[in-house]
Amino acid sequence: MNRDWIATARTLSEALPYLQRYSGAIVVVKFGGNAMGDATAMAEFARDIVLMKQVGMNPVVVHGGGPMINEMLDKLGIKSEFIRGKRVTDKNTVEVVEMVLTGLVNKRIVQAIMDEGGRAVGLSGKDDDLMVAEADGPELGFVGKPVEMNVQVLRDLFSAGIIPVVAPVATGMDMLETFNVNGDTAAGAIAGALRADRLLLLTDVPGVKDASGEVVTQLSPDQVRAMIADGSIAGGMIPKTETALEALEKGVRAVVILDGRLPNASLLELFTEHGAGSIIREPR
Ligand SMILES: Nc1ncnc2c1ncn2[C@@H]1O[C@H](COP(=O)(O)OP(=O)(O)O)[C@@H](O)[C@H]1O
Ligand SMILES: CC(=O)N[C@@H](CCC(=O)OP(=O)(O)O)C(=O)O
């Protein structure tokens, strides 16, 4: 008997308690632009999501696409800068953001999930008023912070056997403006409104690193606040960890920041005893 086959069978058998624990669980997965990588990485990600649905979980994909927005802004000769991990967004920029996220990136992910045999529907915060936002701060322009969530549409899609894929673009309170919402912030707001069992933030680093560059596998909210204050958490990791703290306050059970480029990163986290990346939750 081939040893690899035996190992595969054992892995499946060992996954049973996790499959039982997560049956019916809502898992929000943020797929960052830097984690998307090439077509193979995209297909592997899609396969993991389809598997989650197949075993009875309710995954929701919330995606980013920062590098793809940068590429399009470059082509159009529009300059862009970030403040504390968020893109300063003027009128021209928000149009590009909406086109790239709800068009290009969203449909690529929907297509990848369909290609793996799942059913996916793409939507943005504008669809069925899923995410209503107001300006995050005057210096950021059309960057939104979610103020009202209407997640019924996601529950409807769950019951229909469909995987929702959400682009982080929101409508304003007046229903006229368009806001660019950071992908992590959007994922946290959706996870909070759904009181999700897990929020997975897939990125391009193995987890949250301390000042010496080591990944910290377990973090409490207090530890995260201290690391933001002393500067060991910086740049794009700020919205990610702030999102984690807010999501926990709203009743999400745990938030995991992990490397989406690692093959089967989400499955490793959910279905094995090893876990992956940094898990942030209240100390037990
Ligand atoms: N303490 C830290 N641990 C890990 N990454 C950090 C930390 N501080 C800052 N970073 C940066 O945050 C980045 C992840 O954020 P971002 O680039 O916005 O990812 P994504 O596009 O996946 O949302 C990492 O690539 C890293 O450069
Ligand atoms: C306000 C803000 O910063 N919005 C992000 C939205 C996309 C995103 O979050 O993409 P990643 O997850 O790939 O970083 C942006 O304009 O880049």
Text of the CATH class = Alpha Beta
Unreliable sequence segments: none
Order of strands, main sheet, comes to 5-8-2-1-11-13-14-12
Overall geometric form: globular
Classify the secondary structure makeup into a structural class: alpha/beta
Number of strands: 14
Number of domains: 1
Kindly estimate the percentage of residues that lie in beta strands according to DSSP.
Answer: 15-25%
Described by strand count, sense and barrel closure, the largest sheet is: 8 strands, mixed
Helix content: 40-55%
Q: State the end-to-end distance.
A: 43 Å
CATH topology, by name, is: Carbamate kinase
Description:
The chain is an alpha/beta fold. It has eleven helices and 14 strands. The strands form three sheets. The chain has an eight-stranded mixed sheet, sandwiched between helices. A four-stranded mixed sheet has the order 7-6-9-10. A hairpin with an 8-residue loop joins β6 (131-135) and β7. α9 packs antiparallel against α10 (237-249). The N and C termini lie far apart (43 Å). Bound molecules: adenosine-5'-diphosphate and N-acetyl-L-glutamyl 5-phosphate. Residues 32-34, 64-66, 69, 86-87, 97, 143, 168, 180, 182-183, 236 line the site of N-acetyl-L-glutamyl 5-phosphate.
Please give the structural blueprint.
Blueprint: H1 3-14, H2 16-21, E1 26-31, H3 33-36, H4 39-54, E2 58-63, H5 66-75, E3 82-83, E4 86-87, H6 91-115, E5 120-124, E6 131-135, E7 144-149, H7 152-159, E8 163-167, E9 169-172, E10 178-180, H8 183-194, E11 198-203, E12 218-219, H9 221-229, H10 237-249, E13 254-259, H11 265-271, E14 278-280
Helix pairs in contact: 4-6, 5-6, 8-10, 9-10
This protein binds adenosine-5'-diphosphate (ADP) and N-acetyl-L-glutamyl 5-phosphate (X2W).
N-acetyl-L-glutamyl 5-phosphate binds near residues 69 and 182.
